[in-house]
Design goal:
The protein contains four helices and ten strands; from the N terminus they run H-H-H-E-E-E-E-H-E-E-E-E-E-E. Strands 5-6-10-7-8-9 form a six-stranded antiparallel sheet, with no helix packed on it. Strands 1-2 form a two-stranded antiparallel sheet. The two termini are about 35 Å apart. By secondary structure, the protein is an alpha+beta fold.
């Protein structure tokens, strides 16, 4: 495996430009003077799954390129615990959140009807598209041709959509002419802090 700082340089370049650099630029980024050194490093990254080659013979991210480190310890949200930065495992966000990529989309949240569930305006929810859900699941539903994010619930009167903010009412089908359908189930949430 090549120096981890080389991979980090490639990841930062990709995050900024959304493409991988040329071999010449890789040499400059990593401080490698010869083409053979760059080629050897790229070959090691390909073998490890961090880089791959597109049909046009250009470099592209491999399956492990987007892995992020996970500490072998958890952080307390209460009282502090002893700091320890030893040992890491890795995973990709997709690996963690997405079970069925072909059925999963990201949806940006608007409004505050789910704030008591910890879902805020601007968050991205990962939604697995499927027409049914378990009671208690957070879902994207279609009501009168509009999308809404709520919990799916049921009582003696039938199914309804329950917000996680007391300022909003439950949503029920009013009569046979109105109904709601499940678009998908929320499987995760991504929030970016400034």
């Amino acid at each position: 495996m090549a120096d981890p700082s080389y991979l980090q340089a490639l990841q930062d370049f990709y995050a900024k430009h959304r493409v991988l650099p040329s071999f010449a630029t890789i040499g400059k980024l990593c401080g490698l003077r010869s083409k053979s050194s760059v080629a050897a490093m790229v070959a090691r990254f390909k073998l490890a799954g961090y880089l791959d080659t597109s049909p046009g013979n250009r470099l592209k991210p491999g399956t492990r390129f987007f892995e992020r480190s996970i500490a072998d310890y958890s952080v307390r949200a209460g009282l502090p615990s002893l700091a320890n930065d030893q040992g890491y495992d890795t995973l990709t966000i997709d690996e963690f959140l997405i079970e069925r990529p072909s059925k999963t989309i990201l949806v940006r949240v608007k409004g505050d009807s789910m704030i008591d569930a910890g879902v805020f305006e601007g968050d991205l929810v990962a939604v697995e598209k499927r027409p049914s859900a378990d009671i208690g699941a957070m879902v994207i539903a279609i009501v009168d041709s509009e999308f809404t994010l709520k919990y799916l619930d049921r009582d003696k009167e039938g199914f309804y959509l329950r917000p996680a903010n007391p300022a909003y009412p439950f949503i029920r089908a009013r009569d046979a002419t109105q109904s709601f359908e499940i678009f998908g189930v929320v499987v995760g949430l991504v929030r970016k802090y400034e």
